[in-house]
């Protein structure tokens, strides 16, 4: 986008005190600097930590995954909704999210929380929703701001069951699992999952 003054008649002026019309002089067209319209974008990727590990049955606030949310340089982005999906498997391949939910996460973990550093984001989700291919919890009504050109680390924590040793992993299956808007423009943010779908390590 480039703004310009094209004709001498586009500028009309008078003396502040005299009120006399002034003659506009100069070379036209006069162009302002070019501006580029950007789209607020957030890229989500899985961190390499925490590593795959074993938690004792009945552990509270087990740290099972960390995800990086990176905003581009267009503008600050407000994340308004995050849906974490979970499954039970011996592999964290995200293709497992697309297969039958034979061993649902809902039976083995509870009280799912997400954190920005030491600050909890949204409300604790006490139970998973049992889906066809995977289970999920949704954190809605959020106002998590990611400043343009920066990255936030979001930790996922939960309580493990007293009665099972079944492995579990969490992640994001599609870009619609995260929603947000440009903080200034209100424009819907483009969400990109690195690799098309991401998951943390098997726990």
What would your notes on this structure say?
This protein has 203 residues and is mainly β. 0% of the residues lie in helices and 40% in strands. It has no helices and 15 strands. Strand 6 (109-116) and strand 7 form a beta hairpin.
Poorly predicted regions:
none
Q: Give me the secondary-structure category.
A: mainly beta
Rg result: 25 Å
Quaternary structure of the protein: single chain
Provide a brief overview of the structure:
This protein has strands at residues 4-5, 30-31, 41-46, 62-71, 77-87, 109-116, 119-125, 129-130, 135-139, 144-146, 151-160, 169-172, 178-182, 190-193, 198-199. It is mainly β and 203 residues long.
Provide the fold topology:
Elements lengths: L3 E2 L24 E2 L9 E6 L15 E10 L5 E11 L21 E8 L2 E7 L3 E2 L4 E5 L4 E3 L4 E10 L8 E4 L5 E5 L7 E4 L4 E2 L4
Parallel strand pairs: 3-14
Antiparallel strand pairs: 1-2, 3-4, 4-11, 5-9, 5-10, 5-12, 5-13, 6-7, 6-11, 8-9, 12-15
Supply database-style keywords.
seven-stranded antiparallel sheet, 203 residues, single chain
């Amino acid at each position: 986008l480039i703004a310009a003054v094209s004709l001498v008649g586009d500028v009309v002026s008078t003396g502040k005190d005299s009120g006399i019309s002034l003659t506009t002089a100069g070379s036209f067209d006069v162009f302002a600097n070019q501006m580029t319209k950007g789209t607020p974008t957030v890229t989500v990727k899985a961190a390499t930590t925490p590593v795959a590990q074993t938690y004792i049955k009945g552990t509270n606030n087990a740290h099972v995954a960390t995800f990086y949310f990176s905003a581009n340089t267009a503008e600050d982005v407000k994340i308004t909704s995050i849906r974490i999906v979970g499954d039970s498997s011996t592999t964290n391949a995200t293709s497992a999210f697309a297969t039958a939910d034979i061993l649902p996460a809902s039976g083995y973990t509870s009280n799912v929380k997400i954190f920005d550093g030491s600050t909890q984001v949204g409300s604790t989700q006490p139970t998973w929703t049992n889906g066809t291919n995977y289970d999920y919890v949704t954190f809605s009504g959020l106002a998590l701001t990611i400043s343009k050109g920066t990255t936030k680390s979001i930790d996922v924590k939960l309580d493990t069951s007293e009665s099972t040793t079944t492995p579990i992993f969490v992640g994001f299956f599609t870009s619609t699992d995260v929603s947000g808007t440009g903080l200034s423009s209100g424009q819907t943010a483009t969400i990109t999952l690195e690799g098309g779908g991401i998951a943390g390590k098997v726990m």
